[in-house]
Protein backbone atom coordinates (compact mmCIF):
# COMPACT_ATOMS: atom_id res chain seq x y z
CA UNK A 1 0.00 0.00 0.00
CA UNK A 2 1.27 3.51 -0.75
CA UNK A 3 2.53 5.46 2.23
CA UNK A 4 0.14 8.11 3.55
CA UNK A 5 1.79 11.55 3.25
CA UNK A 6 2.77 13.25 6.50
CA UNK A 7 0.77 16.29 5.44
CA UNK A 8 -2.39 14.16 5.28
CA UNK A 9 -1.73 12.70 8.73
CA UNK A 10 -1.13 16.17 10.18
CA UNK A 11 -4.33 17.49 8.60
CA UNK A 12 -6.37 14.63 10.05
CA UNK A 13 -4.85 15.19 13.47
CA UNK A 14 -5.65 18.92 13.30
CA UNK A 15 -9.19 18.06 12.18
CA UNK A 16 -9.71 15.98 15.31
CA UNK A 17 -8.17 18.60 17.60
CA UNK A 18 -10.40 21.30 16.08
CA UNK A 19 -13.50 19.16 16.60
CA UNK A 20 -12.55 18.41 20.20
CA UNK A 21 -11.83 22.08 20.89
CA UNK A 22 -15.28 23.10 19.67
CA UNK A 23 -17.00 20.45 21.80
CA UNK A 24 -14.94 21.22 24.91
CA UNK A 25 -15.58 24.95 24.55
CA UNK A 26 -19.32 24.41 24.20
CA UNK A 27 -19.97 21.70 26.77
CA UNK A 28 -16.93 21.41 29.02
CA UNK A 29 -14.58 18.50 29.50
CA UNK A 30 -16.74 16.37 31.76
CA UNK A 31 -19.85 16.56 29.57
CA UNK A 32 -17.92 15.79 26.38
CA UNK A 33 -17.08 12.18 25.57
CA UNK A 34 -15.01 10.65 22.82
CA UNK A 35 -18.22 9.78 20.98
CA UNK A 36 -19.05 13.50 20.80
CA UNK A 37 -15.61 14.28 19.40
CA UNK A 38 -15.87 11.47 16.85
CA UNK A 39 -19.26 12.74 15.66
CA UNK A 40 -18.00 16.32 15.39
CA UNK A 41 -14.87 15.31 13.51
CA UNK A 42 -16.75 13.51 10.74
CA UNK A 43 -14.28 10.64 10.95
CA UNK A 44 -14.67 7.04 11.99
CA UNK A 45 -14.00 5.93 15.54
CA UNK A 46 -11.01 3.96 14.32
CA UNK A 47 -9.53 7.01 12.63
CA UNK A 48 -9.90 9.15 15.75
CA UNK A 49 -8.49 6.51 18.09
CA UNK A 50 -5.56 6.06 15.76
CA UNK A 51 -4.41 9.53 16.79
CA UNK A 52 -5.81 9.88 20.30
CA UNK A 53 -6.52 7.02 22.68
CA UNK A 54 -8.39 9.11 25.23
CA UNK A 55 -9.92 12.47 26.04
CA UNK A 56 -6.90 13.28 28.20
CA UNK A 57 -4.62 12.90 25.18
CA UNK A 58 -6.83 15.31 23.26
CA UNK A 59 -6.66 17.85 26.08
CA UNK A 60 -2.88 17.51 26.10
CA UNK A 61 -2.76 18.12 22.34
CA UNK A 62 -4.87 21.27 22.66
CA UNK A 63 -2.65 22.60 25.45
CA UNK A 64 0.48 21.82 23.42
CA UNK A 65 -0.95 23.73 20.46
CA UNK A 66 -1.50 26.83 22.58
CA UNK A 67 1.87 26.39 24.29
CA UNK A 68 3.60 26.28 20.93
CA UNK A 69 2.01 29.57 19.92
CA UNK A 70 3.01 31.16 23.22
CA UNK A 71 6.56 29.89 22.81
CA UNK A 72 6.80 31.45 19.35
CA UNK A 73 5.69 34.85 20.67
CA UNK A 74 8.06 34.86 23.61
CA UNK A 75 11.04 33.50 21.71
CA UNK A 76 10.63 36.39 19.28
CA UNK A 77 10.32 38.82 22.21
CA UNK A 78 13.47 37.47 23.86
CA UNK A 79 15.49 37.03 20.67
CA UNK A 80 19.03 38.36 20.38
CA UNK A 81 19.37 39.02 24.11
CA UNK A 82 16.62 41.65 24.10
CA UNK A 83 15.63 43.17 27.43
CA UNK A 84 11.86 43.73 27.26
CA UNK A 85 10.26 45.50 30.20
CA UNK A 86 7.48 43.76 32.14
CA UNK A 87 4.63 45.77 30.56
CA UNK A 88 5.89 44.83 27.09
CA UNK A 89 5.98 41.16 28.10
CA UNK A 90 2.44 41.39 29.46
CA UNK A 91 1.30 43.17 26.28
CA UNK A 92 2.78 40.36 24.20
CA UNK A 93 0.86 37.72 26.16
CA UNK A 94 -2.36 39.76 26.19
CA UNK A 95 -2.10 40.03 22.42
CA UNK A 96 -1.76 36.26 22.22
CA UNK A 97 -4.88 35.81 24.37
CA UNK A 98 -6.83 38.14 22.09
CA UNK A 99 -5.59 36.27 19.01
CA UNK A 100 -6.57 32.91 20.48
CA UNK A 101 -10.00 34.27 21.24
CA UNK A 102 -10.56 35.47 17.68
CA UNK A 103 -9.05 32.54 15.79
CA UNK A 104 -11.33 29.83 14.35
CA UNK A 105 -12.76 27.32 14.92
CA UNK A 106 -13.63 28.54 18.42
CA UNK A 107 -12.46 30.85 21.19
CA UNK A 108 -9.57 28.84 22.60
CA UNK A 109 -9.53 30.82 25.84
CA UNK A 110 -12.85 29.24 26.82
CA UNK A 111 -11.10 25.88 26.73
CA UNK A 112 -8.19 27.27 28.75
CA UNK A 113 -10.47 28.33 31.60
CA UNK A 114 -12.25 24.99 31.60
CA UNK A 115 -8.89 23.24 31.72
CA UNK A 116 -8.17 24.98 35.02
CA UNK A 117 -11.23 23.43 36.62
CA UNK A 118 -10.58 20.04 35.07
CA UNK A 119 -7.00 20.12 36.35
CA UNK A 120 -8.28 20.29 39.93
CA UNK A 121 -10.03 16.93 39.62
CA UNK A 122 -8.02 15.09 36.96
CA UNK A 123 -4.35 14.33 37.74
CA UNK A 124 -3.55 13.67 34.08
CA UNK A 125 -4.91 17.05 33.01
CA UNK A 126 -3.26 18.71 36.00
CA UNK A 127 0.12 17.40 34.85
CA UNK A 128 -0.37 18.85 31.37
CA UNK A 129 -1.67 22.22 32.59
CA UNK A 130 1.02 22.46 35.28
CA UNK A 131 3.78 21.94 32.73
CA UNK A 132 2.27 24.45 30.30
CA UNK A 133 1.85 27.25 32.80
CA UNK A 134 5.27 26.69 34.30
CA UNK A 135 6.78 27.08 30.85
CA UNK A 136 4.82 30.27 30.16
CA UNK A 137 5.66 31.65 33.60
CA UNK A 138 9.28 30.82 32.88
CA UNK A 139 9.29 33.31 30.01
CA UNK A 140 8.13 36.05 32.37
CA UNK A 141 10.77 35.01 34.91
CA UNK A 142 13.39 35.39 32.18
CA UNK A 143 12.06 38.87 31.45
CA UNK A 144 12.48 39.69 35.13
CA UNK A 145 16.01 38.32 35.27
CA UNK A 146 17.08 40.30 32.22
CA UNK A 147 15.51 43.41 33.71
CA UNK A 148 17.44 42.89 36.93
CA UNK A 149 20.70 42.34 35.06
CA UNK A 150 20.13 45.58 33.16
CA UNK A 151 19.33 47.51 36.34
CA UNK A 152 15.69 48.11 35.38
CA UNK A 153 14.27 46.04 38.22
CA UNK A 154 15.42 45.79 41.86
CA UNK A 155 18.23 43.27 42.16
CA UNK A 156 16.91 41.93 45.47
CA UNK A 157 13.45 41.07 44.14
CA UNK A 158 12.59 37.42 43.57
CA UNK A 159 12.40 36.87 39.77
CA UNK A 160 10.03 33.94 40.27
CA UNK A 161 7.47 36.14 41.97
CA UNK A 162 8.04 38.99 39.53
CA UNK A 163 7.27 36.55 36.73
CA UNK A 164 4.25 35.19 38.59
CA UNK A 165 2.88 38.72 38.96
CA UNK A 166 3.21 39.35 35.22
CA UNK A 167 1.45 36.07 34.46
CA UNK A 168 -1.35 37.00 36.87
CA UNK A 169 -1.95 40.19 34.90
CA UNK A 170 -2.41 38.13 31.75
CA UNK A 171 -4.69 35.56 33.36
CA UNK A 172 -6.73 38.39 34.86
CA UNK A 173 -7.24 39.82 31.38
CA UNK A 174 -8.27 36.40 30.07
CA UNK A 175 -10.91 35.87 32.76
CA UNK A 176 -12.33 39.39 32.61
CA UNK A 177 -12.47 39.25 28.81
CA UNK A 178 -14.58 36.10 28.97
CA UNK A 179 -16.82 37.07 31.87
CA UNK A 180 -17.25 40.81 31.34
CA UNK A 181 -16.37 41.26 27.69
CA UNK A 182 -15.50 44.95 27.96
CA UNK A 183 -11.69 44.95 27.81
CA UNK A 184 -9.58 46.17 24.93
CA UNK A 185 -6.18 44.41 24.67
CA UNK A 186 -4.24 47.55 23.76
CA UNK A 187 -5.89 49.66 26.45
CA UNK A 188 -5.33 46.93 29.04
CA UNK A 189 -1.66 46.66 28.11
CA UNK A 190 -1.28 50.44 28.39
CA UNK A 191 -2.98 50.40 31.79
CA UNK A 192 -0.47 47.79 32.95
CA UNK A 193 2.33 50.08 31.78
CA UNK A 194 0.84 53.07 33.61
CA UNK A 195 0.34 51.06 36.78
CA UNK A 196 3.91 49.73 36.67
CA UNK A 197 5.25 53.24 36.23
CA UNK A 198 3.16 54.55 39.10
CA UNK A 199 1.99 57.52 37.02
CA UNK A 200 -1.54 58.94 37.06
CA UNK A 201 -3.67 58.26 34.02
CA UNK A 202 -3.91 61.34 31.77
CA UNK A 203 -7.06 63.28 32.46
CA UNK A 204 -7.83 61.56 35.76
CA UNK A 205 -8.23 63.55 38.95
CA UNK A 206 -5.29 63.52 41.34
CA UNK A 207 -6.07 63.40 45.04
CA UNK A 208 -4.78 66.34 47.01
CA UNK A 209 -2.77 65.74 50.11
UniProtKB/TrEMBL annotation:
<dbReference type="GO" id="GO:0003700">
    <property type="term" value="F:DNA-binding transcription factor activity"/>
</dbReference>
<keyword id="KW-0678">Repressor</keyword>
<feature type="domain" description="HTH tetR-type">
    <location>
        <begin position="10"/>
        <end position="70"/>
    </location>
</feature>
<dbReference type="GO" id="GO:0000976">
    <property type="term" value="F:transcription cis-regulatory region binding"/>
</dbReference>
<protein>
    <submittedName>
        <fullName>Transcriptional regulator, TetR family</fullName>
    </submittedName>
</protein>
<feature type="DNA-binding region" description="H-T-H motif">
    <location>
        <begin position="33"/>
        <end position="52"/>
    </location>
</feature>
<dbReference type="Pfam" id="PF13977">
    <property type="entry name" value="TetR_C_6"/>
</dbReference>
<dbReference type="InterPro" id="IPR001647">
    <property type="entry name" value="HTH_TetR"/>
</dbReference>
<dbReference type="InterPro" id="IPR039538">
    <property type="entry name" value="BetI_C"/>
</dbReference>
<keyword id="KW-0804">Transcription</keyword>
<keyword id="KW-0238">DNA-binding</keyword>
<dbReference type="InterPro" id="IPR009057">
    <property type="entry name" value="Homeodomain-like_sf"/>
</dbReference>
<dbReference type="InterPro" id="IPR050109">
    <property type="entry name" value="HTH-type_TetR-like_transc_reg"/>
</dbReference>
<dbReference type="Pfam" id="PF00440">
    <property type="entry name" value="TetR_N"/>
</dbReference>
<keyword id="KW-0805">Transcription regulation</keyword>
<dbReference type="InterPro" id="IPR036271">
    <property type="entry name" value="Tet_transcr_reg_TetR-rel_C_sf"/>
</dbReference>
